[in-house]
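Q: Please design a sequence for this.
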């Protein structure tokens, strides 16, 4: 396999199934020993582009957006927590958890790409949100995440006020939406085929094996 397999993951930082989907994909890559043969790039998608600055209570948000009852939400969260445990990821839900705006997080993920730190920063941010209940729209949280993965925090944060950087993320979001991406995670292989949702590890292994054989 001469060229690396290109995998684009269209996702949001505050999307639990995106985290589960990635962790399953990661397991499939490791089990097939393809770590050096894939190139993963994270692409921006906002589940809640109009989320106000101070966010919204998660229970209230899910009820409004999806019509889910409190009981349904608790059931879903318990299921995600159990799945997370299987994949060594901690989902720590609470009644005062808030859904937040993620636009700035996407700018920083784009910045991290230049230093091959995208996946590291993505997982740091998603861990901050789901495991540590931190507000990933706040600059001090974003700054700490940059520091934690060894990036230049001042340089990264400066991007948040850069109109060109902001416009670039909007353009990227529009690109994937125009291709028909309406739910996340959407995982695109070599810009030719895609699967949506947190598929089982076996499904990812099948797709990766086929692509590796083709190459």
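A: Design:
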């Amino acid at each position: 396999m001469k060229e690396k397999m290109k995998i684009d993951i269209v996702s949001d930082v505050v999307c639990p199934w995106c985290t589960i989907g990635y962790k399953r994909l990661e397991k499939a890559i490791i089990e097939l020993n393809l770590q050096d043969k894939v190139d993963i790039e994270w692409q921006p998608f906002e589940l809640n582009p109009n989320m106000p600055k101070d966010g919204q209570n998660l229970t209230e948000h899910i009820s409004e957006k999806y019509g889910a009852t409190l009981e349904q939400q608790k059931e879903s969260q318990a299921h995600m927590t159990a799945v997370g445990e299987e994949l060594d990821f901690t989902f720590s839900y609470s009644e005062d958890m808030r859904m937040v705006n993620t636009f700035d997080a996407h700018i920083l993920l784009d910045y991290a790409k230049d230093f091959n730190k995208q996946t590291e920063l993505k997982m740091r941010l998603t861990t901050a949100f789901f495991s540590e209940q931190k507000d990933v729209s706040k600059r001090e949280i974003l700054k700490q995440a940059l520091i934690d993965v060894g990036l230049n925090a001042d340089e990264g944060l400066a991007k948040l006020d850069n109109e060109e950087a902001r416009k670039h993320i909007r353009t990227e979001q529009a690109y994937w939406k125009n291709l028909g991406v309406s739910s996340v995670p959407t995982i695109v292989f070599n810009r030719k085929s895609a699967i949506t949702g947190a598929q089982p590890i076996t499904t990812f292994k099948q797709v990766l094996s086929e692509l590796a054989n083709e190459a």
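Q: Thanks. Anything notable?
A: The chain has a mean pLDDT of 96. DSSP finds nine helices and six strands in the chain.
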